[in-house]
Each structure stands twice: as C-alpha cells, then as structure tokens.
Fold this sequence. Notes:
This protein is an alpha/beta fold.
Amino acid sequence: MGKDDAILNAFKEDQTVEKISADRKLRVGIIGCGWIADAHIKAYLAQPDVEIVAGADLIPGKAAAFFKKHGIERVKTDYASHKEMLDDKSLKLDAVSICTYNRQHAAPAIYALEKGVNVLLEKPFTVTLDEAIEVVRAEKKSGKILTHGFQPRFDENMKMIKKIVESGELGRVYYIQTGGGRRRGIPTPFGTTFIDPNTAGIGALGDIGCYSLDMVLNAIGYPKPLTVTGYTSSFFGKDPNYSGYRADKRAEHAKIFGVDDFAAAFIRLEGDIILDFRISWAMNMDTSGDTLILGTKGGLRIPSTECWNGTVGGPMKIYREVCGQQVETEIPIIPMKKSLFELKIRTFLDAIKNNTPAPIPSEQILYNQAIIDAIAKSTKLGREVEVVIPEI
Length: 392
C-alpha cells in the first residue's frame, strides 16, 4: 500500500447504522412553524424514540395547520407565544427545536433553557454577539443541552477536511480562503422573512456565511478571532430589476430588502492564521472561489458549489512535495447514507438521552457569531475592529 492510499484509508468513516431504543420517548415541541420546521419535523418523525407534543407560532392558526399538513394528531398548538407553550407543565417537554426567524432566536432559546428544556437552535446562532452571549449564559446556568443547526458538520466530506488538517499533512496552517455564493439566490420563495431587517437582521452573512465559516474554523480547531475588517453590500436586493425576484414581486421585495446580499472580510485568528472570507446571495459571477487551506507542508483545495448548500463541490485535492517533486492527491467524495438533517436531529436526541455534550458546542458557534457581528460593525465604522468576547 502506497502512502497516498494509506492517507485516503485513514479518512474513511464507519457509517454503521445503530439500533435506536424506543423504550423512552422524548417529548418534543416546535417553536416557529415556517418552512425550515418542515425539515425538522420530517427528521423527528423518522426517529422511533420521539413524540411530538406541541407547537407554537406567532401567527394564529399556523402551528395547527403545520401539524395537520404533516398528518400529526394530538399536538397542542393553542399557544399565543413560545412562553405560553414552555409554561405548560402538562407537556413535560424534553426538548424544543427553535425554527423562528433570526431576530426571534435568542428570546425563546433563553426561555426554554430557563425552563429546563434542551434546545436545538436553528442557524444563525443569533443576530448579534450580545444576544449570543446571553443565550450561552442561560445554557451554562441551566445545565441543559444547547446545540445548533449546523448540519454540514455531519457530512463525512466535511469531517474529512478536519481530519486532513489534524493529520499534519498540511503542516502549520497560516492562510485560509473561504466563502461561497449564489449568482442569483436571494431567498424569497418562502416570503420576506429572510430579507426584512425586522425579522432577519442579517442576510447572506448569517444565512449561509455562518456555514462557510464553520467549515474551516471547525477544521482548524476554532481559534479565537482577534480582529476583523469587514464589508457588506446590498446592490442586488434593493434593485427592483433584480431578475432573481418573481416579476410581480420585484418592486415589493426591493422596497422591503434591508439586509446584506454580499459580505467579505479579512479576519485575524489566534495562532497567526489569516482568514479571507466572502459570501453571496447575488453577484455577477458563478462562484466566489474554491476554499483553500494553505499550510507549510501542503495545501488543500475544496471545490466550490454552484449554490452553497453545506457540502463540497467535488473531489478535494492536497498539494505538496514528495521527494522533491510537486504532487497532488485527490480525495474522493464519500457518499452519505443518511440525510444531514436527520443526523442533526439524531445527535441532539442522543446527547439528551445519554447526557453527553452538545454535538455542536455553543462555545464554538459563539466565535462564529462574533465574526459575523464584527463584520457588521466594521462595515458601519469603515475600519478594522477588535473582537471582544467577555468571560461567560
């Protein structure tokens, strides 16, 4: 067996399916019954040890219609708010999925944790760093599990990126280029919650930018961000001629649009690592470039995707020298046997049942949110900003 074969074999993952005991069923509620909740409920329904018992949404009747659509009966939905649902002791909730719009992430997460309920919080963590800090404080005080909706982490190809870095094949990592983008992909098919500043707070930066940041930060061990020089723009979303909108909604959407549709940043991390980041919902280009991780012994190229969806765009390559010769090692794509959403739900449930740490630790995603927050602040100030995260 050659050295390259040994490297590739070391990255292979055992995806053996484990039998799940249904002796104890976890009682789960859904907060926010919009389109992302569809993916959550489908994943929960695939688990034999889950009973969905409640749902809440700010729009009257929306929760009831949501569960009816999915054919789920005997679910309590007569709540005017997340607080009313979480105050209902008869539910005996073990966990909730929070699937609200961005600006409603922090409040229900904090309240659920205060009530002793485990939380799966959809991405982005929050809109601001201050909100994220308050959520983590509630988590620490509660002793309950808080995990996050970063399902790309469970892609075997994403895990491989981390293994490559940890193997030492790249040497000391000193520079990373990452991001992703859509040529025309402002998310309005499900309404305006993603583009209205009153509900979204942040745009592409929080929607898909958080994934791109997590892909590389997780691979290198989530070093603390130190300084950020950021830039955001909204040229496309505010343009009534933007072709990505429905023709009959262009003027309406352009008027409502109040978040970023493009963001870029130059980020300094602990360990003397530079992170060059860009993300896009709309741009006049097919891609903002592949992800590159440069190290002193080798470099890793991670192909971009046409529409950033939390995976890699094709076989990755390691570039290095062997015996004085420049060589390339292609890393084959590992096919997934389960959906990433189902893995996200399953690991959350297992952590609750086994009293193990959160599968996506908030201590890491707090750094992710700190970078997003700093990009927004740097844009407003027009200069580099220091990232300050208080002790929690």
